[in-house]
Amino acid sequence: QVQLVESGGGLVQPGGSLRLSCAASGFTLENYAIGWFRQAPGMEREGVSCISNRNGRTDHADSVKGRFTISRDNAKNTVYLQMNNLKPEDTAAYYCAADRGLPGFCTLSIQPYNYWGQGTQVTVSS
């Protein structure tokens, strides 16, 4: 059974850090591009960061560049999203998703992603 499980969300003060994890079961994560997406109440889901299979090419939304880093640990079948200098506008439910897609490529667009996790809540507030 293909499954993605996110963890690591929580409440953090502005300027703080969190590391989200996306653990896969039922398939080998390194063969897929992985994206992190977020959705705030009343807003559309948006792409945050992604990492390709094969060469580990990454992409980030402009709003998180320089603050968020995506990485993968193939031995643990897990992808991470390190989030630093968090801002209140980063508050959202965060989801990871997997796309078999093109080798060495990833996208922040939602459409190609086949498998989705259930999400983890990140709240940035003082």
In short:
This protein has 126 residues and is mostly beta strands. 0% of the residues lie in helices and 47% in strands.
Order of helices and strands: EEEEEEEEEEE
| Ends distance | 40 Å
How many helices? 0
Indicate the mean pLDDT.
95
For the biggest sheet, the summary is: 7 strands, mixed
Structural class: mainly beta
Shape: globular
Low-confidence stretches: none
Helix content: under 10%
Features:
mainly beta; single chain; 11 strands; seven-stranded mixed sheet; four-stranded antiparallel sheet; globular; 126 residues
Question: Care to describe what's here?
Answer:
The chain is mainly β. 0% of the residues lie in helices and 47% in strands. It has strands at 3-7, 10-12, 18-25, 33-39, 46-51, 58-60, 68-73, 78-83, 92-99, 115-116, 120-124. Strands 2, 4, 5, 6, 9, 10 and 11 form a 7-stranded mixed beta sheet that branches. A 4-stranded antiparallel beta sheet has the order 1-3-8-7, with no helix packed on it. The model has no long low-confidence stretch (mean pLDDT 95).
